[in-house]
Write a structure and sequence with these properties.
Elements (H helix, E strand, L loop, with lengths): L2 H6 L2 E5 L2 E5 L3 E4 L6 E4 L9 H14 L1 E4 L6 H9 L12 E2 L2 E9 L24 E8 L7 E5 H6 L3 H7 L3 E5 L1 H4 L16 E5 L1 E3 L6 E3 L6 E4 L4 H15 L5 E4 L5 E6 L3 E5 L8 E8 L6
Parallel strand pairs: 4-5
Antiparallel strand pairs: 1-2, 3-4, 5-16, 6-7, 7-18, 8-16, 8-18, 9-15, 9-17, 10-11, 10-14, 12-13
């Protein structure tokens, strides 16, 4: 247990009248639906098994968790990610020299675009999309640059029973080709011969929580399989608008050296580019996932 944790004593989570202690970390919810800030943890230090278990639990319960003032090296960033699984290599984005698993996040006054401007789940076009992403922002603009996160369990639960029945068993094509081709030319990254594509359930079951979540996104999903294209466009358009309901969301205001860790299997996110001409930069480590079911 860290010295900060030992001084502050047990922390508590409260939802629907339930109170359950956290013994080694602090967990303060951003909203009742999604997001929590974690305190009492120094990710540059060796974490106990109990602390790691509680970080796992906090992620499962809150879908995205945040750590502030984390002064970690690139190797510590990678090592933290590896505690959750094998690391994922992005199929298109630039990375730090010699570290393909350490993705660069950078935008300044000369950038034609920024990473993650639209709602999406990271690299959902892969056959086995990432389990989670761990982003550290090291340079923040003086204002703006927040990231929005949305709970796809809540989005699914809020659908009518008729819509849930309609979506049951449907799959959709997720395609990286139109998303990635030419996207990183300003970084000097050459296009690859091809980019991944895969078919995934429109509603997936989370392998840890067993909950159902919507799993289509405007960044990668092209059409629902087995129905007319105009019907697919209408259904996807409805689901995208539905997912963007602020009641499903939290908003994180970045500070230098803060870290966000989100579960791509049940959350979507959107980065706001409202800080031009200022600079925002950092690095991201992504953890491999499994084929959605």
């Amino acid at each position: 247990m860290s010295s900060l944790a030992s001084k502050q004593g047990p922390r508590y989570r409260q939802t629907a009248g339930e109170e359950e202690p956290y013994e080694t970390i602090g967990v303060e919810k951003l909203t009742p639906v999604i997001g929590a800030e974690i305190s009492g943890v120094d990710l540059a230090s060796t974490l106990s098994n109990r602390t790691m278990d509680e970080i796992h639990r906090a992620l499962a319960e809150n879908l995205v968790i945040f750590f502030r003032d984390q002064h970690i090296t690139p190797q510590q960033h990678l090592a933290f990610g590896r505690q959750f699984g094998e690391l994922h290599i992005h199929p298109a984005a630039p990375h730090e020299p010699g570290e393909p698993a350490l993705m660069k996040i950078y935008a300044d006054k000369d950038s034609p675009r920024v990473n993650g401007e639209g709602w999406h789940s990271d690299v959902s076009c892969d056959e086995e999309p990432p389990m989670g992403s761990i982003l550290q922002i090291k340079q923040c603009p003086p204002s703006g640059g927040d990231t929005l996160f949305a709970n796809m369990y809540a989005a699914y639960d809020a659908l009518s029973d008729r819509m849930k029945t309609y979506l049951h068993g449907l799959t959709a094509l997720h395609d990286g080709e139109p998303a990635y081709r030419g996207l990183y030319a300003n970084y000097g990254v050459a296009d690859r011969p091809s980019y991944p594509h895969a078919e995934h359930p429109v509603v997936r079951t989370h392998p840890v929580t067993g909950k159902k979540a919507l799993y289509v996104n405007s960044g990668f999903t092209r059409h629902i399989n087995g129905i007319p294209r105009d019907e697919s466009d209408a259904i996807l358009g409805y689901l995208y608008r539905h997912m963007e309901n602020p009641l499903f969301q939290c908003r994180f205001r970045w500070t230098e050296n803060a870290i966000a860790f989100w579960d791509n299997r049940c959350a979507q996110h959107r980065a706001l580019w409202d800080y031009w001409p200022h600079t925002r930069s950092g690095t991201r480590v992504t953890v491999k996932g499994e084929r959605p079911v």
